[in-house]
Design goal:
Elements lengths: L1 H10 L10 E5 L5 H9 L4 E2 L20 H4 L10 E5 L9 E2 L5 E2 L6 H8 L4 E6 L2 H14 L7 H10 L6 H4 L2 H9 L7 E5 H4 L3 H12 L10 H11 L8 H4 L3 H10 L3 H9 L9
Parallel strand pairs: 1-3, 1-6, 2-3, 6-7
Antiparallel strand pairs: 4-5
């Protein structure tokens, strides 16, 4: 029934002909799901029911005619603004091949493709403490059975000959932001800090609304939003993966050294000191 209803809606033109006005492009594990839930409830903003469309970073999906892409916005009801949230667009050279396997260090980038079609779009990026984000990415993949090594071993493998997760590379925010600024001027890019906005979502929504040109509307959140918020606000909970997750001092020092270009770059770019470890 869903596919029939969707086809009828597409025939009736119930999808945006122009595509998104703004994109939430990163970073993964930095509150983008929560942000998607919040903006989806704004009366003047349309967000697809499915978060992470993975169109511009998928060789199997991407086509320059955008026909299949626009069809992903089923349910559009002429809202003033349209957005998409796919955080992996943030990473330079990270694409999925036609079989759905993730590839790193590719010559083409999602942001290049995105800019080709939407050069005037606003770009929203949420950044999280790289150390916390490394642990979060690892924890998610470990719990899903995608990796069985310890976090220490993952870091060691990446330094030696590359690993499946590329935890250090994915947290070189300076590399990814410099690639984005090749295509989008800074006035079209809003960088928000996860640790700041997740504790004051009303201020964050006010700032984001102003940035994308939407009226501010206070949003308390539905059940899905509240559940997501609570998962972010949990701190220090114990886990059966504790030994897998915990960083020893040697590995922590390696991460600090490898990510050392990130902190001065962001401190200068944002004209502030960030509330992060090693920052």
């Amino acid at each position: 029934m869903f596919s029939i209803n969707k086809n009828i809606a597409l025939l009736k033109g119930e999808y945006p002909r122009r595509g998104p006005d703004f994109f939430i492009i990163g970073a993964t594990r930095s509150g983008t799901t929560y942000l998607h839930h919040l903006l989806k409830q704004h009366p003047d903003i349309f967000m697809p029911q499915t978060k992470e469309l993975h169109y511009f970073n998928s060789n199997g999906k991407y086509s320059k005619d955008l026909k299949k892409y626009l069809g992903m916005f089923y349910g559009y009801k002429k809202e003033k603004l349209i957005g998409e949230a796919t955080p992996l667009y943030f990473e330079k050279g990270t694409l999925y091949d036609s079989d759905g396997r993730i590839l790193f260090f590719q010559n083409e980038t999602a942001i290049e493709r995105l800019h080709h079609h939407y050069p005037d779009a606003k770009i929203i990026i949420s950044l999280r403490d790289p150390i916390d984000r490394i642990e979060s990415i690892y924890s998610k993949n470990f719990s899903q059975g995608k990796v069985t090594t310890t976090l220490q071993e993952e870091i060691g493998q990446e330094l030696a000959d590359g690993s499946r997760l590329h935890l250090l590379y994915r947290n070189r925010y300076d590399i990814h932001l410099k690639e984005i600024f090749k295509y989008y001027p800074q006035k079209q890019v809003s960088i928000i800090i996860f640790e700041d906005w997740v504790s004051d979502t009303n201020k964050a929504l006010s700032d984001i609304s102003s940035f994308i040109g939407a009226p501010y509307v206070e949003i308390n959140g539905d059940e899905e939003t509240r559940n997501t918020r609570e998962s972010y606000q949990k701190r220090g909970s114990s886990s059966g993966m504790e030994l897998k997750l915990s960083l020893n001092q040697e590995t922590a020092n390696i991460i600090k050294d490898e990510l050392s270009p990130v902190y001065p770059y962001l401190n200068e770019l944002l004209a502030r000191t960030l509330p992060w470890k090693y920052g």
